[in-house]
Write a structure and sequence with these properties.
Distance between the termini: 69 Å
Strand content: 15-25%
Mean pLDDT: 83
Radius of gyration: 28 Å
Helix content: 40-55%
CATH superfamily of the largest domain: Endonuclease/exonuclease/phosphatase
Structural class: alpha+beta
Low-confidence stretches: 178-183, 291-299
Strand order of the largest sheet: 3-4-5-6-12-8
CATH class of the largest domain: Alpha Beta
Shape: flat
């Protein structure tokens, strides 16, 4: 246990460990607004900083100076969690006055420490109080931040806002990993990294030719053959990377003791293969992250991986509030409630209002009408495709625009005819 004593009637931080826990906690440093400990289990270690930021605004810079110094010296995965007594965004408060200047400073301090927000689920706010006017104020003062290494170490970590009882704050609960339940069959997703394998372009051409003219069937065929190719030929990128690293380490250890032209030649071949697999790994995470502003090929693999995890956590639904006001986290109940909501939404009878030219709506002239109804050209489809972001979210078939761009020469005619038919027949 570690304790940071109270100052007057406020402050104070306790770090407690459950009896019989497999983890060890080692105090690293502390100041009156933060306690930092190393959490370890065997050789596995990470840093945790528990924060209780001063309610006095002018005292908070000392906290961020401490955290910034810690971030510069720290080499471990790092979690920073607690009551920051500040908010980042207007939507994180209700009632009272939002200070953009304070929020901007909070943002800058977080950025200086290279931290990312872990997000949260449960209640929207974590604190309730009263302002001078007597109005009730709600704010999200309690939260968790971490560095990229910690986010990669615990990709499924979540922060839950629990029920407020005797305090004006909601307790927050960090779960480093959660039971995800049955995810069912994973849907097909085209992987751009497959294109880097010399056999894959021929596989697509051959498969597409089987049902040429039926684009839906062609896409199904390619998805099926690509899944088999990924399992039997392409393989697991990360397993192949580890295997190559192990072989290279063995060769380099051997070369420390003997001179061997054969080993030198083999090392050169393996290094080429290793560079290729690093590019495949980066392509994989770049595609999953859907970040368009960082250039592919600049070895930002860990950044793309972290962005992928953050996007997944942001998109994941941990719970929903039922019509009764009850918070529900049961997966089966959430599925049935979501289905019911959208059935009610889209099955509602809507009155259709027809507008006639008598109402003063301008009509298109003959030239404009002729332009709209003329046949769609292949170059128009090509230009539209090339203007799309390559890695935007795929449709139900699992193919992103990058697939159609890469294989335009082989599938362009079928894609154009499909679009043309859609415009002609609706």
């Amino acid at each position: 246990m570690d304790v940071q004593q109270v100052q007057g009637h406020s402050g104070g931080i306790w770090v407690l460990q459950r009896r019989g826990s497999d983890f060890n906690f080692t105090s690293v440093s502390k100041m009156h607004q933060c306690v930092s400990v190393v959490v370890s289990k065997g050789n596995d270690k990470w840093l945790c900083s528990g924060v209780y930021a001063s309610p006095v605004y002018t005292a908070r810079p000392a906290l961020w100076e401490y955290l910034e110094d810690l971030s510069k010296d720290n080499v471990l995965p790092w979690l920073v969690i607690g009551d920051f007594n500040d908010i980042l965004l207007p939507r994180e408060h209700k009632g009272g006055v939002f200070s953009m200047a304070k929020a901007d400073l909070f943002h800058r301090n977080v950025d200086k420490c290279d931290l990312v927000d872990l997000g949260s689920f449960g209640t929207k706010f974590t604190w309730q109080g009263n302002c001078r006017s007597g109005r009730v104020v709600h704010k999200r003062l309690d939260r968790g931040f971490c560095n990229v290494d910690w986010r990669l170490k615990f990709p499924e970590a979540t922060v839950e806002h629990l029920v407020r009882r005797h305090s004006d704050h909601n307790p927050i609960l960090l779960r480093c990993s959660i039971a995800t339940g049955s995810a069912g069959d994973r849907p097909f997703r085209f992987q751009a990294a497959w294109f880097t394998h010399s056999d894959y372009p021929d596989l697509v051409k051959t498969t597409w030719a089987r049902d040429r003219g039926n684009i839906a069937q062609c896409l199904q065929n390619v998805a099926h053959e690509s899944t088999i190719f990924n399992k039997d030929v392409f393989g697991n990128i990360f397993a192949r990377k580890k295997e190559l690293e192990a072989r290279l380490r063995g060769i380099q250890r051997a070369l420390e003791n003997i001179d061997s032209a054969n080993l030198m030649r083999l090392q050169k071949e393996l290094l080429i293969a290793y560079e290729n697999i690093l590019f495949q790994e980066e392509t994989l995470w770049y595609q999953k992250s859907r970040e368009q502003w960082v250039k592919l090929g600049s070895r930002n693999t860990s950044f793309f991986h972290a962005q992928t995890i953050i996007r997944r956590k942001r998109n994941k639904i941990h719970g929903i509030r039922l019509n009764s006001g009850e918070w529900c986290t049961d997966p089966d109940t959430m599925k049935s409630e979501a289905l019911k909501f959208f059935k009610d939404l889209f099955c509602t009878t809507q009155l259709v209002t027809r507008i006639s030219n008598a109402d003063g709506v301008l009509a298109l002239d003959d030239t404009a009408v002729a332009e709209l109804i003329k046949p769609v050209t292949k170059i128009e489809v090509y230009d539209a495709l090339m203007s799309m972001k390559s890695y935007k979210a795929p449709g139900p078939d699992g193919f992103q625009p990058i697939f159609f761009k890469l294989f335009w020469k082989d599938i362009g005619d079928d894609l154009w005819k499909f679009v043309k038919l859609a415009f002609e027949n609706g």
